[in-house]
Model the fold of this input.
Amino acid sequence: MKSTPAVAQKATQKATSPLGRSLRTRLVIMVIMTTAVVVALAAGAAWVASARMQHLAAENVLRNYAARMMPALTFRAWVGQRDGRPSGEVTPPTFPNDSPLLRAIINAERQVLTSSGFTANEQDWVNVLPIVSDRIHQLDLPTIGQSLVLVSAIDLRLPPKRPTPGDRGPPREGDSPLRRLAERFDERADAYLSTLEHLHPKLVLIYPLADHQRELTNQAWVLAGMWVVACTLVAAVALLITTRVLRPVHQLTLAIAAIEPGTPNTQITIQALASELHPVQERLNDLMMRVDKVLRREQQTTANIAHELRTPLAGLRTKLELALTRERDPADIAQLCREGLSTMILLQGMVDNLLLLSRLEAGQERPRTEAVELAEVLAGAWSLHQPAAIARHITLEKKIETALSLVTDGDKLRAIFSNIFSNAVSYATAGTPIQVTAHEQGDGRIRISIANDGATISTADAERVFETFWRGDTARTVEKGHCGLGLPLVRRLVTVLGGTVTAHVKNKQFLILILLPDDIRSTTEIKYTPV
Done:
């Protein structure tokens, strides 16, 4: 799939971005960001937990003080303290100086009856108090600030009377003064109760949070400083670690940069390379080997083309120079022109084959689909070389299943057989047949074999016939009109048609074996890979 210009531009921008320039920079930034997030979350959780614990501790202080103070604020304690005074002068007792809390007792009209610990106008904060018993509220009180407030109702219920001698009957003569005092106290209790009930007194406890807030602020600054220190230390450690970790990558880069074109040894060998980089080194060495193989093949191809063109061009130049040396008969000039024309036809065929090879290797040749009869295609390809075969007394023997047809590209199939027959007619022993067999294998493929006697190459060199410009004739003569392009074209064309082709040499017999799909439409898209 081809990348669009927008995708290519986006990839280029990503590669040139600050994070894409250096793997080390990217690793360090990622480690620092991860550490910063983790430490920030941990510090935030610790700060929230500390604030919650302090809040709960303050609430416990309020509740514990209220529970400890309530028994001292009962009706009996008030009456006992104010015994003998007018009811209008009844006020609650003062608080003991044993707590940092701000304490007060207020009545139903929000008047402060008594207080302890306040330094400012008490009425300012009394007006915003929630009159809800036994619940702790966090309020922003005037002149005090953020505070926890607990408002508890004081229990004014009379305690049960203890039995007295008066309960057992009218007073008798001779009762003790203590008994008469108790009776008098009980009589006054009813009078005090009627006076106190309209007060509805409540105990107010205030816990200022200013100190806690200052402490939490200090903790936040300490945690922020620890966060900065942690990120700095992690950045330093990450830089040190990435430098050591990426050192093998730097060594590998230097080793690759040290390779120069044309050097005989292009393998990369680094001692003590990290195990994670061994596959990279192996793939690089494999890539270098393949690149070197391709370069050698291209160099060899260029040299072969030069050698193949040199001989016919030299012959053509010789004929032209010979024609110009002196005056010649028209018949001699015509003969020289015919010889030059045959040389030009050979050169044109070589150029056409090279262009076709280039298109095949570039994937520019796509097969057409048509139903063809194999026997007809073979007959048409053989007819082109039959005159040369007759001259050498070579015949064609066919063993083909009747009505053997396939869906493929007929023109490319004829070109395949034409090149094979051309090679076979040129190199087969005179007077021997060329044997063609074809049958369907039953797996959706057709097996075709073409064999001829007179092989002059070894078994080991059989597969080399498909290499471009390779010939068993090291002298590279052009007497038979071959330059080493026919069979390479055969392999490329067979590949385009979705098949395979192999060459074998046995007992001086050269055999070409072709396997083609009976329907090219059932095969996947063919992509040629240069050999």
